[in-house]
Amino acid sequence: MKANRGQIERALDAPGQGASADIRFFLLYGPDEAGSQSLAKRLERAMGPQAERIDLDGATLKDDPARLSDEAASFSMFGDKRWIRVSGMGEESVPALTALLEAQAAGNPVIAVAGALKATSKLVKLALDHKAVMACISYQPDARESEQIAVGIARDGGLRLPSDLARRIVDLANGDRALMTGEIEKLILYLDAAPDRPREATAEALDALSADNPDTEVGPLVNAVLGGDLKAMHRELTSLNETGTAMASVIRPLLNRAMLIANIRTDFDASGRLDGAVEAAGKAVFWKEKGLVSRQVRQWDAPGIARVLQRLLEAERATRSGRGLGDLMVRHELLTIARQAARERT
User: Which of 157, 180, 155, 136 is nearest to 12 (CA)?
Assistant: First the structure.
């Protein structure tokens, strides 16, 4: 059944209770991928840090449609709560979802972030028509809504964010919720804010964190990673290492390009015209790189680039963890992404 944002938030905050007592499956989709991801985080928080999470994807469910219902009915081997997260879900997963909904028992909640699905999608129709499913579509927020989202994210972390700084962050992240969250999380850490010790965000702090290093050129690395050129990637990483460039500095350019590819891919899938989708991106695509960007859009389908964004966001969080593993994780994720891109080239 269809749910608005308020309904889905309440259901994800209390899975298996109240109005969501009979819900087996949550489908989060739509053009605002980051908005869907933020909703998925609510279920993760509700299940708690000790809960066992099972990760599946569309390819796995295509090969084994019974896997989803089996996992949903299984008990945790540790005796804790258990839930299932599905990525890259599409039409190939309809048999798996059907089996889940027809199963006699399914005690573990299942959630999927499926990206921009068409209204005619069999997956969407099944989800909207079944009372044991909650489906919510996330649209890209407008500028005013984005500012309110930024203020809310900051408030949850103990940061008071004035409207002028919220507007700057929205502009810096081009309205993308995931990128806004990253900028705000950096501010929270920089100012040592927390819900029990709130801090006031300042322009000086934002300036310090947003300052670009003009001596660092990561464009070739971005194209090597997302284009699947492993030799060029290793060459660029060696060069950055020799200049002492922190790996954290390469994440934001990669995130920006990946988000650009995701947006263009959405338009391309809807229209079938790649040139038109690239042109519609306007100045976001530098004219000299239109060819490169077009090839990257062809290499990455919507589920693939969504996984890239998730990997990059996890790597960015690792660089801010202070545990000394950030650079290593970034290199690992870049290698994983580049290898996948190389496979798509063949």
Answer: 136
